[in-house]
Specification:
alpha/beta
């Protein structure tokens, strides 16, 4: 699961006993060599799906980490792209690894629960970060996303179908979440990361309460489960307002850094 360039067991243990922010600061230099980074096929599939729906001027990658999702936005947005994360270490890596070309990119250190932006974005994406938010935090988080979107703006993120009860994946995730709950009950600072807490029904309900119109798009690149349901869906939540125009321009390339 980890490449030779990834973190050692000791480094992972130190990270796990830190706060979320400090843990990611420590992990940042080797983060892209771990299974925690969103895989390129998922990034590519999301980019392709969004490219078919609309064009966008300004995009925000929420909890951008080392910037993998910013590359997706750079291929979708015509004017500018922003990555926001509360880990200074992750942002430092993102700045160094940003690719030249495409729209200008800026990097902002901030908490997703208190975003320092006006309603200036047409598209907000996020990849693999929602396990760091407790279910009771979703209303506030989604309200923050709404506050930075223009009318008609879009909030999109992939959501993997949960493993079947009794399967190996089910027991692995249950075991991980159980260990994290015990750790957080016995140790401070807490490290919030729960794989089973971000459920589709809860997400749809809270997005709707926040004023979004919620749609689901299967990502066909990942096929379907035995019951016919998609293995991976793209959640597309839109605000009321003037709809985005149809695509008329080619996709750009990964962006440069203005920070």
């Amino acid at each position: 699961m980890f490449s030779p360039e990834g973190p050692s067991l000791r480094e992972l243990a130190v990270q796990a006993l830190s706060s979320v922010e400090r843990g990611y600061d420590l992990l940042a230099p080797k983060f892209d060599h771990t299974p925690f980074r969103t895989p390129d096929p998922v990034l590519d599939a999301v980019g392709s799906a969004l490219r078919r729906t609309a064009t966008f001027d300004a995009g925000l990658d929420l909890c951008c980490g080392t910037g993998a999702g910013v590359g997706v936005l750079a291929g979708l947005c015509r004017e500018r792209v922003t990555g926001v994360d509360f880990s200074a270490g992750m942002l430092d890596v993102a700045r160094r690894r940003a690719q030249p070309g495409g729209p200008p990119v800026s990097w902002v250190r901030a908490d997703a629960r208190a975003l320092p932006f006006a309603p200036a974005f047409d598209l907000v994406v996020s990849f693999g970060a929602f396990g760091h938010f407790l279910p009771r935090e979703l209303p506030g988080l989604f309200a923050q996303v709404r506050s930075v979107l223009r009318p008609g703006g879009c909030f999109a993120f992939p959501l993997v179908a949960p493993p079947r009860p009794g399967s190996l994946g089910y027991w692995m995730l249950l075991g991980f979440d159980t260990v994290m709950r015990v750790r957080n009950a016995l140790w401070r600072p807490r490290f919030v990361m729960y794989y089973r807490a971000f459920r589709l029904d809860d997400v749809r309900r809270e997005l709707t309460r926040a004023g979004f119109r919620v749609g689901l798009q299967p990502l066909p690149e990942f096929g379907r489960r035995q019951d016919g349901s998609p293995r991976v869906r793209l959640v597309v939540a839109r605000l009321p307002g003037q709809p985005a125009p149809s695509p008329t321009v080619p996709a750009g390339r990964p962006g440069t850094v203005n920070s």
